[in-house]
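Lecture notes, part 5. Sequence design as translation. It can be helpful to think of inverse folding as translation between two languages: the language of shapes and the language of residues. The source text, in structure tokens, appears below.
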């Protein structure tokens, strides 16, 4: 029975007993539970007299004479019948459907796992036909009316699962259920097994894994039918002698114990054991004192031990051996029956197998120290797969490649300089030779290996590729070809034309000046094409002949003409970023399949509103927002850091990696970066991305100790996941650049905290420095020991309970205490030798080493292009998972200080001041408000129509000049010595209020303006179309940077204040519906100062990164805050996707909560909000754009923003808010 079937349904209905009409209709409590129908009194439904009607084998029929009436009958000679009338058709159909399932059951299974039960429901004891009872993952008690001591009442019970109940003692009552054939008592903190276990003579399967057992009773040896005994993850120091008597048991399941030595003679005495599982035991030696062969053992699993040598030559019938992740230097085996050998991640210099293993089909000796392959490998007649990656091989034997059985050869990351010629046709299907020193491939490769479907020769020194055939007609079956990172030129295009079955072609980062148009047209089956990092100026128009093409990646070239690809019927992703595009020729219509178009980094590309409207249906559109520069701007200082990011989905349908990046955190000389990897779920990374920056900002107000505020940030974020974090989790990495609290004017430090497998690498003097710690069971022995001591079940693939390989995650609460949210925290002082910081997820660093990542970024320099290259390389190296990378360039020095003598201001570390309307003071923008030279990203993301928007807010705009008094000369500040900050709100440095003529005012609101206030791109008070405003039917769409909406809020008195009318309409947020027509990420180098009312300032102030409350999210959940002040016209109040009850836990605040202020300021806020309803002017502070063609680490940036204190009722404030919403 399914869990839903085991839950009771109950109603008060009219009931009549028996088929005759001697009984009257009466109102009764009717309960359908388990496999029984219970009829009881209405007042005492479970305490009074109950009539139990077993339904298994019985029948349920419709009664046509009465409306909504069912007849329930039990089976057998003493069958009883009840007629039940239901009030509604829905109830009638639901009960009929459930009862029909029960009466047809033959196996009586009740599954009550994971219901937090303390007792067995009383009504279940009336179901005498129950044979299988699952009480796993509950809190069952031994005593009480429904306690485990009552289990013998199930007289037909055959299978009982009470694992994960933390019982502490063995429930001896189960030894009275003599019908049991299967008993699972895993993970119950058991220390002993009673001798009464011998009563269960019918027992066939006994699971005692994950307890504290160190011995077994002798009575257990009397269970002659027992054929499966699980003893893994206990405290056994040796193999229990009682196993010698259990002749039906054929597997020794003792993984995760304390067996540090093994005499093979012990296995000889247990002649019935064929499968030996001694993983994770800390085995240090295994030997045989006599020459007697161990003939019965066929499979051995010795993974994750401490063996330095292994001689199993006496195990003469061994078929399968797993000995990965030991410290083996030598390995000796018998080859008579050997079929599979897994010996990766050791220190092997040779492998001795005698005789030649003619039955061997799979061999994995990767990540060892092999300098040559043993001769016997070439003599294997049936070998199909050979993995020798990450060794020291300098050559491949000629006989190996000419083997008539080898189908898959993986020889990447070696020192190969050549590949032997093929003498005859071979059945090779997969050949991986990446990361070697190959200059050429055998000329006969493609027409001798006609079955070759996959070839990866990336990261070599190839200058050409072989011909596909010797004649014009090609028989090539090649489907995937990876040539990234070689020295190929445009001539190779003509050599690829013969591979007409090619589906995936990666030829990125070569020396291609062009691609032959006539050749590309012949690759009609091409589905994915990557031409990034070359010197292409155009993509041939014949690409339109590739009707199956769904992915075109050609970033980091010199392309100036948009290719003819928007007419392709299956196109999904087009990446033409970091090129030289100037215009786009629009087709008549866009294909419905197009999901992502990336045009960032094209400095000369200008799109009109008509074009933007044309692209409005694309799920994700990434564009650059052009900057505007005024004569008052000057380049007086450079930014200290800037970032770029990239994410790729791989072969998955969803992106489970999210990024957080805030270049101006709190006081604009701090930064926060993060990356979150959900492995196979996208919900948790999105939630972390929208909350973690805010949590860190809040915790920094309470502590300046790195371990304290980082641990609190991770624990709070873990709690805020709510229901989403119960069974889902994510790796998380957070980097915080700051000055030490003890020395605010001193050097910068980088504090890194992480859980899971996301990593951070700092480049210092060209060398990588690992700042994070990988919390996976395979990479961290300390965590492996901790998880073992807590008695978790670790499966063969090194996953906790088969769920995750990580021992520390945010989320996955149900795996506690095995999986914890406690982070690794490390603080590294930064110096002038620090060049850049790389953040990446597991998929990136599994394929790209730290040193290669550093070389890659050094060669590219521009952070965004470098991040894209890292992801492209990982894909070309064979990664199929989601990939995420963040590159942060650093320029930590004191040389760029441009301060003038400043007015001394104290910096109280207290709760933020009262939220009041503010006005804008004209001056230069903050230097940290600039993006990288390639601009910020603009993304359109549409999943719901504009009519489905949950809330709409009206807008007002004005170009009237606010009045102002005499403005004093502001104090100049540099990025190294900023204006004093107060919890993320900038406190001005001098008195006086300045104004600026032509200040544009706009209120932050939702993603659409109502049509009565905006028409055809013109706001009600504007005379010309507004930059960044997109007209779309009756709605006006506005470009919003989802990555980093930087708001600068200041105070003053406007000349003509306007009333701000905010309509808070119904929102779909709490229902989990994503309310948006277009999600836009604006990439801008100009700043826009927003004026908002006091209520909105409060909303902004609650969230310095406005993580989940402002801005829009990408459809893939990616959010990067490109840090700079943007031309933000409008901000959307949107919610993350909610599919399974997010934000329903008590710790998770409702996203539509009202304004929250500290109790001490509540009365003051109320008084000020009553009198505040005016709109305050904002000021645009545009910077100077930088060049895209020749990117450098530190482009010139405008001077720091200067604020002044003014007398008056309102305090002048500057606040920067960064949106890292979903």
């Amino acid at each position: 029975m399914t869990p839903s079937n085991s839950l009771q349904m109950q109603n008060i209905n009219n009931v009549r007993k028996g088929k005759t009409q001697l009984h009257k209709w009466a109102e009764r409590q009717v309960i359908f539970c388990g496999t029984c129908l219970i009829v009881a009194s209405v007042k005492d439904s479970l305490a009074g007299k109950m009539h139990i009607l077993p339904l298994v084998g019985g029948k349920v029929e419709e009664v046509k004479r009465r409306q909504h009436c069912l007849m329930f009958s039990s089976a057998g000679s003493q069958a009883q019948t009840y007629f039940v009338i239901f009030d509604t058709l829905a109830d009638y159909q639901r009960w009929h459907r459930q009862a029909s399932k029960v009466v047809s059951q033959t196996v009586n299974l009740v599954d009550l796992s994971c219901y937090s039960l303390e007792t067995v429901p009383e009504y279940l004891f009336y179901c005498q036909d129950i044979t299988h009872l699952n009480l796993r993952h509950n809190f069952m008690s031994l005593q009480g009316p429904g306690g485990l001591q009552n289990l013998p009442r199930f007289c037909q019970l055959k299978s009982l699962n009470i694992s994960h109940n933390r019982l502490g003692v063995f429930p001896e009552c189960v030894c009275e259920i003599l019908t049991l054939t299967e008993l699972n008592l895993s993970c119950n903190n058991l220390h002993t097994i009673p001798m009464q276990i011998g009563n269960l003579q019918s027992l066939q399967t006994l699971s005692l894994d994950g307890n504290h057992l160190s011995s077994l009773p002798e009575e257990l040896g009397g269970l002659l039918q027992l054929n499966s005994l699980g003893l893994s993850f206990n405290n056994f120091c040796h193999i229990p002698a009682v196993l010698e008597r259990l002749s039906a048991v054929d597997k020794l399941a003792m993984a995760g114990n304390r067996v540090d030595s093994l005499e093979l003679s012990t296995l000889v005495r247990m002649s019935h054991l064929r499968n030996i599982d001694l993983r994770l035991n800390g085995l240090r030696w295994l030997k045989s004192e006599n020459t007697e062969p161990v003939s019965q053992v066929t499979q051995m699993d010795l993974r994750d031990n401490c063996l330095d040598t292994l001689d199993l030559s006496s195990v003469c019938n061994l078929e399968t051996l797993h000995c990965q992740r030991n410290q083996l230097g030598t390995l000796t085996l018998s080859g008579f029956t050997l079929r599979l050998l897994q010996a990766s991640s050791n220190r092997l210099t040779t492998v001795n197998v005698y005789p030649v293993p003619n039955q061997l089909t799979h061999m994995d000796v990767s990540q060892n120290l092999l300098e040559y392959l043993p001769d016997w490998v070439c003599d294997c007649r049936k070998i199909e797969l050979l993995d020798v990656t990450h060794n020291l091989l300098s050559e491949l034997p000629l006989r190996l490649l000419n083997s008539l059985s080898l189908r898959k050869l993986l020889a990447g990351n070696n020192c190969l300089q050549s590949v032997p010629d093929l003498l005859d046709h071979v059945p090779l299907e997969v050949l991986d030779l990446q990361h070697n020193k190959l200059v050429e491939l055998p000329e006969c490769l493609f027409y001798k290996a006609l079955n070759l479907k996959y070839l990866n020769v990336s990261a070599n020194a190839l200058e050409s590729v072989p011909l596909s055939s010797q004649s014009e007609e090609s028989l090539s079956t090649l489907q995937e070809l990876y040539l990234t990172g070689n020295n190929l030129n445009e001539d190779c295009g003509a050599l690829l034309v013969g591979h007409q079955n090619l589906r995936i072609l990666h030829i990125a980062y070569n020396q291609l000046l062009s691609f032959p148009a006539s050749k590309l047209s012949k690759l009609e089956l091409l589905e994915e094409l990557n031409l990034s990092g070359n010197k292409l100026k155009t993509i041939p128009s014949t690409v339109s002949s590739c009707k199956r093409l769904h992915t075109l990646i050609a970033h980091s070239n010199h392309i100036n003409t948009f290719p003819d690809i928007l007419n392709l019927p299956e196109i999904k992703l087009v990446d033409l970023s970091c090129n030289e595009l100037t215009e786009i020729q629009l087709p008549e219509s866009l294909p419905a399949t197009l999901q992502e178009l990336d045009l960032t980094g094209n400095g000369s590309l200008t799109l009109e509103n008509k074009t933007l409207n044309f692209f409005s249906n694309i799920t994700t559109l990434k564009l650059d927002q052009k900057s505007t520069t005024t004569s008052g701007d000057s380049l007086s200082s450079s930014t200290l850091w800037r970032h770029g990011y990239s994410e790729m989905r791989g072969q998955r349908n969803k992106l489970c990696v999210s990024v957080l990046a805030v270049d101006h955190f709190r006081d604009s000389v701090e930064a926060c970066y993060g990356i979150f990897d959900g492995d196979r779920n996208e919900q948790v990374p999105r939630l972390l991305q929208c909350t973690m920056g805010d949590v860190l900002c809040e915790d920094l107000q309470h502590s300046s100790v790195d371990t304290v505020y980082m641990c609190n940030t991770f624990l709070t974020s873990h709690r805020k996941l709510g229901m989403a974090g119960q069974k889902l989790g994510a790796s998380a990495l957070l980097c915080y650049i700051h000055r030490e609290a003890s020395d605010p004017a001193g050097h910068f430090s980088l504090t890194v905290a992480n859980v899971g497998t996301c990593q951070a690498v700092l480049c210092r003097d060209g060398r990588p420095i690992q700042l994070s710690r990988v919390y996976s069971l395979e990479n961290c022995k300390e965590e492996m020991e901790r998880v073992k001591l807590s008695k978790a079940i670790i499966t063969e693939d090194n996953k906790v309970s088969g769920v995750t390989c990580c021992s520390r995650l945010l989320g996955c609460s149900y795996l506690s205490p095995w999986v914890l949210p406690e982070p690794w925290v490390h603080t590294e002082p930064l110096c002038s030798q620090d060049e850049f910081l790389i953040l990446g997820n597991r998929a990136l660093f599994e394929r790209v080493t730290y040193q290669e990542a550093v070389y890659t970024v050094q060669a590219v320099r521009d952070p965004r292009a470098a991040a894209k290259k890292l992801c492209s390389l990982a894909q070309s190296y064979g990664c199929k998972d989601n990939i995420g990378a963040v590159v942060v360039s650093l320029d930590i020095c004191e040389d760029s200080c441009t301060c003038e003598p400043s007015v001394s201001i104290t910096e109280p570390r207290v709760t933020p001041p009262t939220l009041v309307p503010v006005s804008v003071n004209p001056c230069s923008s903050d230097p940290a408000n600039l993006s990288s030279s390639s601009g910020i990203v603009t993304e359109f993301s549409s999943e719901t129509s504009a009519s489905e928007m949950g809330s709409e807010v009206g807008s007002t705009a004005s170009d009237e000049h606010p009045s102002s008094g005499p403005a004093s000369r502001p104090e100049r500040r540099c990025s190294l010595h900023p204006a004093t900050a107060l919890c993320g709100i900038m406190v001005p440095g001098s008195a006086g209020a300045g104004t600026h003529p032509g200040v544009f005012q706009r209120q932050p609101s939702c993603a659409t303006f109502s049509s009565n206030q905006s028409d055809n791109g013109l706001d009600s008070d504007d005379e010309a179309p507004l930059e960044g405003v997109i007209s779309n039917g009756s709605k006006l769409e506005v470009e919003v940077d989802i990555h980093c909406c930087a708001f600068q809020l200041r105070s003053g008195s406007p000349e003509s204040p306007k009333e701000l009318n905010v309509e808070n309409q119904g929102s779909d947020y709490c229902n989990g519906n994503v309310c948006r027509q277009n999600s836009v990420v604006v990439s801008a180098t100009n700043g826009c100062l927003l004026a908002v009312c006091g209520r909105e300032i409060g909303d902004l102030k609650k969230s310095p990164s406005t993580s989940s409350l402002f801005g829009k999210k990408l459809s893939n959940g990616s959010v990067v805050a490109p840090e700079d002040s943007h031309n933000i016209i409008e901000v959307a109040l949107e919610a993350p996707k909610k599919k399974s009850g997010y934000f329903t836990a008590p710790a998770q605040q409702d996203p539509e909560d009202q304004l929250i202020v500290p109790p001490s300021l509540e009365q003051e806020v109320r008084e000020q909000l009553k009198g505040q309803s005016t709109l305050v002017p904002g000021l645009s502070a545009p910077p100077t754009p930088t060049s895209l063609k020749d990117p450098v680490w530190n482009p010139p940036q405008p001077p720091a923003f200067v604020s002044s204190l003014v007398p008056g009722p309102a305090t002048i404030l500057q606040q920067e808010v960064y949106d890292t919403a979903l």
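The translated text above is only one of many valid answers, since several sequences can fold into similar shapes. The chain has 18 helices and 60 strands.
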